[in-house]
């Protein structure tokens, strides 16, 4: 400390010393670049949301780096889908200066260039994973449309890495001139050549037009697959099972076919919903009616969208809970009945509400099945065929319903169902093999479900076909990755007098001949990994069972079969994630991304996918309720900006 004196000793000496002090963490200049400070660091997951001061942080050393700060800005722009101009905003620059005055915030052009550089770096890392991983890739293509009506194709690689973690990486997002099958095939070929990928397991192709209810453009997908079969070498089993049709899209077509003949009950409920949601005053009256009826339901009323059948399901599900409130509206709000007197169908009566309850229960099974088909955070290949069998069983049962409206819907849906899934010859047998590669089910569960929809002879024939295809897969993998350690079949014990064998001359001869033949046959027979796997007992059912963890643990016991499971279980059965699985109008790029050059769009979308530490599951129902609650609680003050 410097001696203090009111006149002779001031702070000038200290002020002159601080700028040149190497231990001053806040000084400017090139001499302080190696100086570190202590700071508390939280994990990425813990750092999300507001901190209440109770989060435990690790004390670490930190030093300012211009390069690291610029990289962090680039990642923020990409991951959080921000426009490049955000770095030139007055508020952002003030915020950045408050955190670190020494940081020179780059301009938008520099940020755009840094995004391109980061894309190339991350692409190189992913190429190395594909090159060194030793796994086959399951490809998934779908198409997007910009607000300028330009067509984009998204190509996603699905695989299970060496640590048995399910991965989904977007490897291409490019502009395409049209949706024709040969066009899609050529662009997929170009992308695979660029990435050096030549080991493909399956390809799930879906054209944007298949989203529409009136057009089923499956022939375009077949053309794309045929083109890829000619280009790709080393296809498994000759590429016979390369094409995997999107189960979510097929199910979407099936349900939409049934809803074509819209029931009057749905129209009445929709009109009642529209009246209540038409003004805040009417909504407030409805809430008071719900309170009088003591309805304790947190669901929010929502109108459906004609092109999204799931929204019709969610609308009916919510409305059914408020049936008594709607009935009270007839007496408490005189405008409610006059609204229907003006030509609107309704209001719904007891008969219509009973029909609504039937529809809700009916559509729920398709809603849940579509959500499971479209899961992106877990393996879906091993359960997809079981879902299909379950739906077929329920459709067969409901086709005998006494409800004429429901019966009519089911008959229309079964026609579309039979077109895609009515015969196993139209299905990809890899979906059935995925059931077998689940150690909890194996062939037993597959046989059980097949017998529910086929006669016993046909079911056993199909099981035999599945086992043969699995054996063929094993032989092909074994030829590539080397033979496994074979386990001989147990030999019969040697003949001895201690055995219960008759002393009769002829009987002794018969037993000796049989033992000799058995010994000869058994000596040349070896059990493959498939035989050993299928002969072992199934794993017990458990809610904590993890399929990929089981194969990771048992990889040493079944090295070749584990490679098959690793490639096959990564196979997607849907081209869309659960949050967009119900749309019948395709996917649309937001206005900001649509305004960018195609190369920039690909850079941002691919890099964002690669940088995100974990995928995020979106609960559609919960998200809708959260938005509704937010708008109500805020008093619509944000309406102008939303």
Automatic annotation (TrEMBL):
It comes from Carya illinoinensis (Pecan). Keywords: DNA-binding. It comes from the Eukaryota. Residues 374-477 form the hAT-like transposase RNase-H fold domain. Pfam families: Dimer_Tnp_hAT (PF05699), hAT-like_RNase-H (PF14372). Residues 1-31 are annotated as: Disordered. Residues 529-611 form the HAT C-terminal dimerisation domain. The lineage of its organism: Eukaryota, Viridiplantae, Streptophyta, Embryophyta, Tracheophyta. GO terms for molecular function: DNA binding; protein dimerization activity. The keyword Kinase does not apply. Residues 9-18 have a biased composition (Polar residues). This is Transposase.
